Amino acid sequence: MVEPELFAGFGPDALGFLSGLASDNSKSYFADNRHIYKKQVAIPMKSLVRTLGDELRTRISPSIRSEPKIGASLFRINRDLRFTKDKTPYHTHLDAVFWEGESSRSSPGFILRIAPDSVVLGSGVFVLTGARLDRYRHAVIDAATGDELDAIIDEVRNSVRGSEMSEPRRAVVPRGFPADHPRAELLRRDGLHMSVEVPVPDLITSDKFVPWCADRLEGFAPLERWLVTNVGD
To answer: What gap in Å lies between CA 89 and CA 78, rounded to an integer?
Structure first.
């Protein structure tokens, strides 16, 4: 089967498939509905990555990357069961990332999650380590770049109604930085991410879902641009 290049919408049974998988997360359910998953979910998801990626490159930055394959923009629907007590075999949502840098998993970028009842959209970088984490912390305490980040966070919150910031991973400010710094809450982060969760729109089954996603992701662009500039690869 030739996969369509342009996204024309998820199939009419796509969300029903995800909802059913949430209710019956079993290999037998997946096997019985594999034809729906492949034709109405997996193939449209690849087309969505291609088409939305093109839209983000036009609107935000030509350097944004999108590759419709596992390990790049896409994630396996099969869960990794090696290190978890939860042995349900499948994710009940679809994830995609659009990144700018070397790694789709650690570079700044945009995220999209499609669940049976909601869509999550946002931007940021989930994990910062080594030199990039050091650059982030010094950008936070710098008067110019730190003030810019404060303004960007406020801008995103105002432009994307309902957007929220991920919680800090650290309980205290890292050693070597002032505990009473006015941006201490940002210093307690080893990553920075903002997102919004909204109900699934009816147009998810049409090509209009692409500009709908792009409109919302564009609201997070100032944060992504700050991260690319100050802590990118």
So the answer is: 6
